[in-house]
Amino acid sequence: MLKQDIRTYGVCIGVITGSITLGVYAYKRLFSRLPPGPFTIPFFGSPARKNELVYETNKRLAEKYGVIFSYWSGTQLKIFLNDYNLIKEAFVNRGDEFSQAPPENMSYFLKFHDRFITVDYNEDVRILKRGILQAFRGLFGSGKTLLEDRIRFELFHKFYNIKDDTPIDVGEFFKALSVNVTCSMYFGKRFEYDSKEMDELFKLSQNYFKWFFVELTLNFTNMPLPFFLKKIIYRKAIQKSKDAIEGMRQWVRSMMEDHDDTEDDLVSAYKKLVPEAKIEEIIDTIMFLLSDPLDVVPGVLSGLFHLVAMHPEKQQKMFEEISNSQSSFLDQSKLPYVRAFIIETLRYANFVSNSAAHRVIKETTLQGYRIPKDADIYANFYAVHMNEETMKDCFIFRPERHLEDNHNIITFGIGRKSCLGEQWVRSQMYLTLVITLQKYRLEPTPGFNKLKYQSDVFHLPEKVELLFIDRNKSD
User: Fold this and answer.
1) Could you give the CA distance from residue 106 to residue 238 in angstroms, rounded to a whole number?
2) What residues form the annotated binding site?
3) CA 284 – CA 289 distance, rounded (Å)
4) What is each CA distance from 14 to 19, 170, 339, in whole angstroms?
5) Which of 243, 285, 225, 188 is nearest to 74 (CA)?
6) CA-CA to 425 of 20 to 30 Å: which in 30, 148, 278, 330?
7) Does the reported pTM lie above 0.70?
8) pLDDT score at 214
9) What's this protein's family per the entry (predicted)?
């Protein structure tokens, strides 16, 4: 009896010892040689976030752990690259390795944006992306004034109702303008302001942005739970996202049905450059591109014009530079201070604080650390832009720095999965600023307080009210 008890006891000890050994081995296999980061709780991840925005968390962790860190969100490992050279090494020099997309990305089971966010950078994606970029260049590339003409036309209509003593909600002001500029450039069609068609598009866009980008892309992704549990918890949001996406898809489809292929617009140019593209591919491509002008551009212009109003001496310097040159996209080289102001705005405001998630084709190493195949890898733009070691006086808004030296700025992504809308956003920023400053001086409203921001997806101001003072009346 005693021998049997001893034997049983020995077996138990062996099982326990073996389990511990296997557990330690598995732990070391899982965590060994990973980039440094905060403590991890099994299944729940790292308690990395405090009462702060995502970009604030990532900046704090970058300051503590250096150019590369990692933490766990639920069972998902996230790795952040916080140095320009390291980001370039991964996403540009080793783009073949780092261009995978996370399969559990929300759009994976929403069946949307597959060609640009969730699918690997394969030949089909290359063709589609190349076609879009060529279409953009054909519309407002070298020697083209089509975009400038459309913006001037819309601004003329919007300027007509401006009064010197009435605060203007910059985001709302430019949202309607951006819709018409975009629709005329994409489809060859514009809407009357305050029309039923424009209101309908605003509502569709608002739902699409809220449910897909904020509730799912941000909140779903950062919830520290296993993926299958998050899908259960977020089933309502997932359905709302599907409804919002389908609403936008139907709207784009209706615009495509009424489209005239003889128009000088993006759809016509894209069809000519990629004749093999299917109608559904074009619809999804246009939907992807609409997120910038409908939701991002108005917020970016709000942030830009806010900085213009808050720095009157810099505004005057831009006005003097503009006055000595004709407003045209071709004049950017002749307006170096205006261009420097825009670059500094993109750096200082950090409208996009980090890249979309990347993954590697297979397990690899970076900076001496192990990069597992299933880890999400991000470029931390905010850490690059707000680093005192590489960007002197980084918390001071100083456009002159971009006239003195070439600084490494990443505003719309880098490498193969960089933002397709970069040229579009930069062009609208430049042309809208130049044309507006020709006619108006911008001033903050009395009693202005600190800006509040919409969400972590895009670091865009909630509301900016400014006074547009007619230069002809004030001089």
Assistant:
1) 8
2) 419
3) 9
4) 8, 71, 70
5) 225
6) 278
7) yes
8) 60
9) Belongs to the cytochrome P450 family.
Structure tokens at 60: 């704090």
417 vs 377: CA distance, rounded Å = 12
DSSP calls for 14-77:
HHHHHHHHHHHHHHHHHHTTPPP-S--BTTTB-----SS-HHHHHHHHHHHH-SEEEEEETTEE
Residue stretches of the annotated binding site for heme:
419
Maximal C-alpha separation, the chain: 108
3-state secondary structure of 143: coil
Distance CA 314, CA 321 (A): 11
Domains of the chain: 33-474 (1.10.630.10)
Amino acid present at 93: N
How far is it, in rounded angstroms, from Cα 413 to Cα 429?
Answer: 17
Q: How far apart are CA 255 and CA 73, in angstroms?
A: 40
Q: How many CB atoms lie under 10 A from the CB of residue 6?
A: 10
Rounded Cα–Cα distance for residues 356 and 61 (Å): 18
Give per-residue pLDDT as tens, 251-306: 888 888 888 776 678 888 777 777 777 777 778 778 777 777 777 888 899 999 99
Q: Which of 430, 403, 422, 438 is nearest to 328 (CA)?
A: 430
Cα pseudo-dihedral 193, 197, 201, 203, rounded to 10: 90
Strands (E), 134-201: 168-169
Residues 6+ apart with CB under 8 A from 161: none
* Residue carrying structure tokens 């830009």: 304
DSSP at 348: H
Structure tokens at 191: 């809407």
Question: Is 262 exposed, middle or buried, given 0-12, 13-18 or 19+ CB atoms closer than 10 A?
Answer: exposed
pLDDT digits (tens, 9 = 90+) for 304-335: 999 999 999 999 999 999 988 765 556 678 89
